[in-house]
Specification:
Organism (chain B): [Candida] jaroonii
Number of helices of chain A: 28
CATH topology of the largest domain in chain A: Helicase, Ruva Protein, domain 3
Number of strands of chain B: 6
Oligomer: heterodimer
Order of helices and strands of chain B: EHEEHEHEHEHH
Strand content of chain A: under 5%
Protein name (chain A): GTPase-activating protein GYP3
Order of helices and strands of chain A: HHHHHHHHHHHHHHHHHHHHHHHHHHHH
Structural class of chain A: mainly alpha
Organism (chain A): [Candida] jaroonii
Helix content of chain A: 55-70%
Strand content of chain B: 15-25%
Shape of chain B: globular
Strand order of the largest sheet of chain B: 2-3-1-4-5-6
Radius of gyration of chain A: 24 Å
CATH architecture of the largest domain in chain A: Orthogonal Bundle
CATH superfamily of the largest domain in chain A: putative rabgap domain of human tbc1 domain family member 14 like domains
Distance between the termini of chain B: 28 Å
Number of helices of chain B: 6
Largest interface: A-B, 52 and 43 residues
Distance between the termini of chain A: 37 Å
Protein name (chain B): Vacuolar protein sorting-associated protein 21
Number of strands of chain A: 0
Chain lengths: ~525, ~220
């Protein structure tokens, strides 16, 4: 049942999915509270104090005439990331050259946003908490970038954070309380990743300077004392999330998502944004079987085939260099999905430079999951258009795994050098001078996801996709495999999944099967 | 490149529990660098590095697939080790559970991976000897037992942090790989390229449907 319940439906009820924190449960559970030790209360009070102490701080350096020179002379950017080492392809000098222009652009953007907010009659002191309603004008402004000082609030507003928060007042604190001292597989995995989350960011990592001040050996023994408040926040958010969404628990990559959110908003909001992201924007992508990864990569491959056929001709091959036929796309995802799946899981964090990530996040919270597909296609096409890529594929020998891995390496390193976010956004949306991927609609992506998900369900029902061994598979001839995986004409004809793509697919299929 | 300098390319995957140091081993091998705090790997990372075996005058290029360690990523694992010629099953010598996990990977590989895959069991973090939880003798006995069943699991310990033993792993693997067969064209997974100039015919005839396993 859960497989059919593909979560592209934005209004899906939460209770079926999450640990149910009803108000009754929260305020009526006095019996349990009696049993709790005084120690726990103390611990809880301390934790709440920590949460409150952190809750007001945004970690973004605001831009103005005083801060810009400081940022330029620093080794770190305005978010605390090390300019040079995070993405080794960009030097500090290159960063500063870019930032000199981009800081001006950002100040100009801020003016535009202030104008829009003022003209919408929204009053605010420092940073608005409400934002202009969705409109073409707002969308245009979003695509040009939200000022970083406002990002946290704007993301939360457009993602529907207030609706969540208002329905679940106090729930985050309650979960934090419930999970104090909890130890399980998820918390173990979280612990291992805490210090492996943005090690190049000053807010996350202890620089040698800091650790010198810790002299008491008892303190050193207690690992946690060395941890920055941000690491403690990250731990609480991830542990609370793993408790609230047991179907997901903790999945590597959530650390980067939560971490980035925490640079822009407080813990409670970051928590709800993580819930929104994993429920509505990337359903099942982080689940225990990574089902959503397979689904979304299947969708992305269909998009490749449809919108960048040249790229599909190169990458739509199996390890033996044979082009994967239409009917097999979803059963055997091509190896390139090993590169692109992390783009979805970490929503581009660590894949492209941080400012470009933030610009995509601006659009993602406002426009939804189609954004991920649009930008994945953009980055892939941009790779394809690069000379180095062409050279790697020049001798038309990109047929084997060894040539493919050269291409994969390029697809992993090249995006890290794309320092200008405006370039990426323009490429994505501009019809002239760009790729015009803005034409890919959410409806198309939703239908595609349902289609792929249904196909996968059919395979699973035969329970062969996971259980069949390679040897058994070899013993079956191709036609039988065709049947087992549920790809045959009748099924294809029965599913109308995408007006743009399905007709073409059907034609090819009927041609093939009538032979 | 002289005529008797031979070249072969192999696919190598890294498997093992999260945070045992898979990426650190790769970065020590490929870039000779080490970061105390390395970001967790999401999905997979692709790198290449070349070694030369002087005694046979052979250059071996490793195509390295570094993978995420978390349990749930296992559903992607068959894509990783499909067609792999070699696998490093890495554990952390200071973590008992990571050794158990490495054993699971060896079992899994024997069931699912291509026949003849060269497996190397690697204990990392040798620099933390005083925190050792996995006894070397026990590992030796485990591997001896495995190898009685005609397996040929290589055993190694290393420290990605100080570099000790890292290159040794890849040299050992290089010597265990079926270089002769590859160069003589008996293997259609890995091939002799001879010269690495572009435009060389990369033996298209070897792209037969469903290539057999590597030996």
């Amino acid at each position: 049942m859960s497989n059919m319940n593909l979560t592209v439906n934005h209004n899906r009820s939460e209770s079926g999915y999450s640990n149910n924190y009803s108000l009754l449960e929260m305020y009526g559970a006095s019996d349990e509270e009696d049993k709790e030790e005084i120690d726990d209360h103390h611990q809880f009070d301390n934790v709440m104090e920590e949460i409150r102490a952190n809750s007001l701080s945004s970690f973004v350096t605001p831009l103005n005439s005083q801060t810009i020179p400081k940022i330029l002379s620093s080794d770190y950017d305005r978010y605390g990331f090390k300019k040079a080492s995070l993405h080794q392809t960009i030097t500090r000098k290159e960063y500063n050259e870019w930032f000199t222009d981009y800081s001006e652009y950002s100040l100009e953007r801020m003016k535009k946003w202030k104008d829009l907010v003022n003209s919408s009659g929204i009053k605010y002191d420092d940073i608005p908490t409400r934002f202009p309603p969705k409109s073409d004008k707002t969308k245009k402004l979003i695509r040009r970038g939200i000022p970083s000082e406002w990002r946290g609030n704007a993301w939360f507003f457009y993602a529907g954070g207030y609706e969540r928060l208002n329905k679940h007042v106090g729930v985050y604190d309650k979960i934090v309380k419930d999970t104090i001292g909890v130890k399980n597989k998820d918390t173990e995995a979280i612990e291992r990743d805490l210090n492996r989350t943005f090690p190049d960011n000053i807010h996350f990592n202890n620089l040698p300077k800091d650790s010198k001040s810790v002299k008491d050996p008892k303190d050193i023994q207690d690992n946690d004392i060395n941890n920055k408040p941000m690491i403690k926040s990250l731990r609480r958010v991830l542990v609370a999330f793993s408790h609230y969404q047991p179907q997901i628990g903790y999945c590597q990559s959530l650390n980067f998502l939560a971490g980035l959110l925490l640079l822009f908003m407080n813990e409670e909001r970051a928590f709800w944004m993580l819930v929104i992201l994993t429920e509505r924007i990337l359903p099942k992508v982080h689940s225990r079987d990574l089902d959503g990864v397979h689904i979304d990569q299947g969708v992305l491959m269909l998009c490749f085939k449809e919108y960048i056929p040249q790229l599909w001709n190169i990458l739509g091959k199996n390890f033996e260099g044979e082009v994967i036929s239409e009917d097999k796309i979803l059963t055997k995802l091509p190896p390139v999905t090993l590169v692109t799946s992390s783009w979805f899981m970490s929503v581009f964090v660590g894949i492209i430079p941080i400012e470009a990530v933030l610009r995509i996040w601006d659009i993602l919270w406002y426009e939804g999951s189609k954004t991920l597909f649009r930008f994945s296609l953009t980055i892939c096409k941009y790779c394809l258009d690069n000379k180095t890529f062409k050279a790697k594929n020049d001798n038309d020998s990109g047929n084997t795994e060894f040539e493919q891995i050269e291409i994969f390496q390029f697809m992993q390193s090249y995006p890290k050098s794309l320092i200008d976010p405006n370039k990426i956004v323009d490429l994505c949306f501009k019809k002239i001078g760009g790729y015009g991927f803005g034409s890919i609609s959410q409806d198309e992506i939703n239908k595609c996801r349902i289609f792929v998900s249904k196909q996968r369900d059919k395979m699973k029902k035969k329970s062969l996709i996971t259980n069949i061994s390679e040897d058994e598979r070899k013993m079956l001839n191709n036609d039988e495999i065709h049947d087992i995986y549920g790809f045959n004409r009748s099924i294809m004809n029965g599913v109308k999944w995408n007006n743009n793509i399905s007709n073409k697919m059907k034609k090819r299929f009927s041609r093939k099967t009538s032979k | 490149m002289s005529d008797n300098n031979r070249f072969a390319q192999f696919k190598l995957v890294l498997l093992g529990e999260s945070a045992v140091g898979k990426s650190s081993i790769v970065h020590r091998f490929v870039k000779n660098t080490f970061d105390n705090m390395r970001e967790s790997t999401i999905g997979a990372a692709f790198l290449t590095q070349t070694i030369t075996l002087p005694e046979s005058n052979t250059t071996i290029k490793f195509e390295i697939w570094d993978t995420a360690g978390q349990e749930r990523y296992k559903s992607l694992a068959p894509m990783y080790y499909r067609n792999a010629n070699a696998a490093l099953c890495v554990y952390d010598i200071t973590s008992r559970s990571s050794f158990n996990k490495a054993q699971d990977w060896i079992k899994e590989l024997k069931k699912q991976a291509p026949e003849g895959i060269v497996i190397c069991l690697v204990g990392n973090k040798l620099d933390l000897e005083n925190e050792r939880e996995v006894d070397q003798q026990e590992v030796i006995e485990y591997v001896q037992e495995l190898n009685q069943e005609n397996d040929n699991v290589i055993l190694s310990e290393c420290s990605a942090k100080n570099g000790e033993g890292v290159l040794d792993i890849f040299n050992k693997i290089g010597r265990a790989l079926p270089v002769e067969e590859v160069i003589n064209g008996a293997n259609n997974r890995s091939r002799q390229v001879g010269s690495r100039k572009p435009g060389v015919n990369l033996s298209r005839q070897q792209n037969q449907p469903q290539s057999s396993n590597c030996c």
